[in-house]
Amino acid sequence: MIKSLLIANRGEIACRIIRTARSLGIRTVAVYSDADAQALHVRSADAAVHIGLAPARESYLVGEKIIAAARATGAEAIHPGYGFLSENAEFAQSVLDAGLVWVGPKPHSITAMGLKDAAKKLMQAAGVPVTPGYLGENQDPAFLARQAGEIGYPVLIKAVAGGGGKGMRLVEHPERFADSLASCQREASASFGNAHVLIEKYIQRPRHIEVQVFGDSHGNIVHLFERDCSLQRRHQKVIEEAPAPGMDEATRAALCAAAVRAAKAVDYEGAGTIEFIADGSEGLRADRIWFMEMNTRLQVEHPVTEEITGVDLVEWQLRVASGEPLPRRQDELSINGWAVEARLYAEDPARGFLPSTGTLELLGFGSTPGGRIDTGVEQSAQVSPFYDPMIAKVIAHGGTRVEAIKRLSAMLEGTAVWPVRTNASFLVEALAHPDFIAGDVDTGLIGRDGEAMAQARAPSPAALTQAARRLVADFGPLGLRLNAPPQTNGLFLLDGEPVEVMLDGAGQELAASSTLLTEKGQAWQLTPWRKSASHGAADGSGAILAPMPGRIIAVDISQGQKVSRGQKLLTLEAMKMEHTLTAPFDGVVAELNAIVGAQVQVDALLVRIAEAGEA
Asked: What CA–CA distance (Å, rounded) separates 27 from 552?
């Protein structure tokens, strides 16, 4: 068994590998960039080496630095995780040439499956069904257009070196082909350094079904059944599950046998995934499922396979890399129950899924039997703009699909993250979609109905009232007494927007220690209403206080300047919204503490306006 291991990755997958390696008694070495100096994976490893600046091209993608780190720390092996250099055949060969163990497939296997057109030709020769299309060398636009016409529209133009949804265009009409081809080739050239494309038939009700395969150096190859990754947004997987809904035993046997043939065709060792596209218009049928591509690495969604098989795939990787045979034969593997995984990202669905960065001041997850959280961050950690914005993989296992979905929904609904925004509420809505519940999912579902799933939602009246009560003390910010009338209206700011909450007398004695309201995976900040937020000081003092924590993005006045009632003084950005603070009366700027770019806390004195005779 390997004694020491360097993980050439970061975040969730690095922590995942460290966890298994430690259980096997393997010493672990982390690598990190400037942005990850305090990251969880760095502190979890037995040793850590700094490898460069924050941009991945200057750190995690520099193979020479990673190999040097392994040599410097005495690591015997390198595990690439997923992403970054995990499917880089040249890096894999460099690791081997350095006398180190590569925890992954042989470089020639990576190369064989690295280009989509070559891989499909290889699969055809191995008897694996492939999607109808053109895989040839002729890249003349007119010739490709004729091929598309013969295949029949709609067609997909795909970069042969593509991945992650890049270098891919759907063309539904012949008159759009030329522009789409040029656009696809530009993106492919910029992203992968290769403008070569293939053309394939577009499947109208596509389902993304993939099979986990595993090989060792003794000629053994097994499958660990299938996963369904059809719920996608812009070709990126959102929710994955295992096994695939609607998969009968005969179709499963044919599909998994084809996956094993595919792996054998490239002399495969280690963990890999054979991805298929299925025409789901008539249910899952063996004659309507075709090879799409192979991922020669561990997949992000590998936990759902682990949950239904009871196998630790990282442990298998390490044992196979150490020269051991596969721990189980095919007849020793079986499916137990159902597992569903959701990718929790730091992004704001209500704003077009824009990434959300910053400090995770609050990070918590719901718990449930059969629940699992794979994460690479913790509370107080920074979500960096330099890397994939995944916060965690939230996984639930159950005896049935219904049970697994309910458990996953409960975990997501109990998720609390602040002030970074997440897609948790979007995931909750996706899990509750009638088609998903019915198992009738294709890759276009979110494209059709995702806008409704992504809409920002207000908290329920009950949750809002409960949070408002927490803000009210004996003589709290609303000026309410303990013997207040049974019904009292209170004015608050909910994420900076005014909201009126009906408060009854009960519960007003509860002191406020938190203004954060969370419900169904969504979070809001509730603060007392202060007229200074929009009209200046409420008490006539002229003191303009910050109505909430935020960043000053504009200052429109200067010290000693005369101002008029209602005149704009400054703009505060909070919770990704802009709040204008104005003068409460005619006067002079007697005190100015606001600086553009500064972060301020609630109730900070920003400006004081004095009457002309007092200045």
From this structure: 47
pLDDT, one tens digit per residue, over 239-269 is: 999 999 999 999 999 999 999 999 999 999 9
Kindly report the average pLDDT of the chain as a whole number: 90
Picking from 142-146, 166-170, 377-381, which range would have the lowest pLDDT averaged per residue? 166-170
233 vs 237: CA distance, rounded Å: 7
- Residue type at position 562: K
Phi, psi of 450 (to 5 degrees): -65, -30
Contact predicate 31/60, CB 8 Å = yes
Catalytic residue among 297, 319, 421, 469: 297
Contact of 192 with 405, CB cutoff 8 Å: no
What burial class does residue 398 get, using C-beta atoms within 10 Å of its C-beta: 0-12 exposed, 13-18 middle, 19+ buried?
buried
CA 547 to chain centre: 32
| Nearest by Cα to 285 from 245, 250, 244, 241 | 250
Asked if 519 and 459 count as a contact pair (C-beta separation under 8 A), the reply is: yes
Q: Are strands 27-33 and 4-7 parallel, antiparallel or unpaired?
A: parallel
Q: What is the 3-state secondary structure (H, E, C) of 51-91?
A: EECCCHHHCCCCHHHHHHHHHHHCCCEEECCCCCCCCCHHH
Interhelix angle for 445-454 vs 424-431, to 10°? 120
Q: Is there a contact between 394 and 415 (Cβ–Cβ < 8 Å)?
A: yes
Q: Is the peptide bond prior to 154 cis by the omega test (within 30 degrees of 0)? A: yes
Q: Would you list the DSSP string of 388-451?
A: --EEEEEEEEESSHHHHHHHHHHHHHT-EEESS--SHHHHHHHHT-HHHHTT---TTHHHHHHH
Residue 297 bears catalytic tag: yes
Cis before 419 (ω within 30): yes
With contact defined as beta carbons under 8 Å apart, do 550 and 599 qualify? yes
> Are 80 and 61 in contact, with CB atoms under 8 Å apart?
no
Domains of the chain: 4-103 (3.40.50.20), 106-131+206-336 (3.30.470.20), 134-201 (3.30.1490.20), 337-455 (3.30.470.20), 461-528 (no CATH), 531-610 (2.40.50.100)
Identify the pLDDT of residue 380: 93
Name the one residue in this structure whose structure tokens are 């993250």.
417
Query: With b meaning 16 or more CB within 10 Å and e meaning fewer, what string describes 566-585?
Result: ebebbbbebbeeebebbbbb
The tally of CA atoms less than 13 A away on the side-chain side of residue 100 is: 28
- Give me 182's structure tokens: 């040029």
Nearest to 347 by CA among 490, 446, 432, 454: 454
Query: Where do we find the tokens 């608050």?
Result: 492
CA atoms of 539 and 535, how far apart (whole Å): 11
